[in-house]
Amino acid sequence: MTSATGERRGGNGRAGRDPYDLAAVLDIATAAFNEFGYEATSMGVLAERLGTSKSAIYYHVTSKEDLLRLALDRALGELERVLEQEGATTGKADARLRFVVRGAVRVLVDDLPYVTLLLRLRGNSAVEREALERRREFDHAVARLVDEARDEGSLRADIDARTTTRLLFGMINSIVEWYRPGGPLTPDQLADDVISVAFDGVARA
Amino acid sequence: MTSATGERRGGNGRAGRDPYDLAAVLDIATAAFNEFGYEATSMGVLAERLGTSKSAIYYHVTSKEDLLRLALDRALGELERVLEQEGATTGKADARLRFVVRGAVRVLVDDLPYVTLLLRLRGNSAVEREALERRREFDHAVARLVDEARDEGSLRADIDARTTTRLLFGMINSIVEWYRPGGPLTPDQLADDVISVAFDGVARA
């Protein structure tokens, strides 16, 4: 997992005056955006939740929109990274698709609040529309993998490729609505279950 | 499809003074709730969209919350009706489960805005919490069907019944995010595709 921290931290002398780093601010902001909605969340509320002042937040970012952009970038960056890994770029399309589905489930579980924020976007601002555009590019990359897997004969061909991709990601994305980390269902078991149900269905073979 | 109209319409003499019936008001209100969010939608905005006055809306309902309650009741009522039909109550559990999945897809498509509203609820008020409770009861009924279908040997038993139900409904519910009525994918074809992918998976058998 990467964090969006970095450029504006670092000086040791700052530790006393800046107890909360950007990663912590982003965590709190993302949780609040998910709970109250982005519009309804004020910088004052974020400061209160962090137990700090608004100026301590402005030390890291220039605006609330900046926080939204960084939070969405985190979710999108992780998803895009899955596509760049060797498992997603070499081998049979079927294996690459399974790798990407598994990787997407992992990102979703590891960065649950961030992906939740991404999936609930409506495109109300330039920042949101830009994020939706990146998400569409990710979806298209997966759709191309589905096409390739169909062409090689690994996937059923009686269902439209677009519908297949949407049902597949509908199932995966729904995880943000019910999965609770730390429960009896481990991330690895969840990924296994998703792969099993998505590729082979719920019926007994 | 039932409508929530009835009790307060009817007198022929009213036609001139009441051009919009409750069904039309509910359609407009549900669309606005989905577009702007329930909190952000005022009765004034609804009146404007209907090209009428607020008092014309208050002729049908006593409050905005009343509209929300009626809209949610329509989606829930239709879903609950699926469970009461003969296909859902008699025969093998596997066939009953498929009947309910197909019926849920149809309700979702036929009442898309209403089900969208239901699925996006957060439980911010008594009306929302009551609707969520009814939705949970529906989900539990489906979960019991999944259990029965596993017990009779129709469904795979290597995945937790709860996870199976959630992935199944994650796939179905995601339809509200991408399906557009009137496009090339007909409701019947969509229902067939959902049944195929959910029960048999996307992999070539």
Largest interface: A-B, 41 and 41 residues
CATH architecture classification name of the largest domain in chain A: Orthogonal Bundle
Largest sheet of chain A: none
What's the CATH topology label of the largest domain in chain A? Tetracycline Repressor, domain 2
Ranges of chain A where pLDDT stays below 50 over 5 or more residues in a row are: 1-18
Number of domains of chain A: 2
Mean pLDDT of chain A: 89
Helix percent band of chain A: 55-70%
Kindly estimate the percentage of residues of chain A that lie in beta strands according to DSSP. Answer: under 5%
Shape of chain A: elongated
Q: In terms of structural class, how would the helical and strand content of chain A be classed?
A: mainly alpha
Tell me the quaternary state: homodimer
CATH superfamily of the largest domain in chain A: Tetracycline Repressor, domain 2
CA gyration radius of chain A, whole angstroms: 19 Å
The ordered string of helix (H) and strand (E) elements of chain A is: HHHHHHHHHHH
InterPro entries (chains A, B): Homeodomain-like_sf, HTH-type_TetR-like_transc_reg, HTH_TetR, KstR2_TetR_C, Tet_transcr_reg_TetR-rel_C_sf
Pfam family, one (chains A, B): TetR_N
Protein name (chains A, B): AcrR family transcriptional regulator
Organism (chains A, B): Conyzicola nivalis
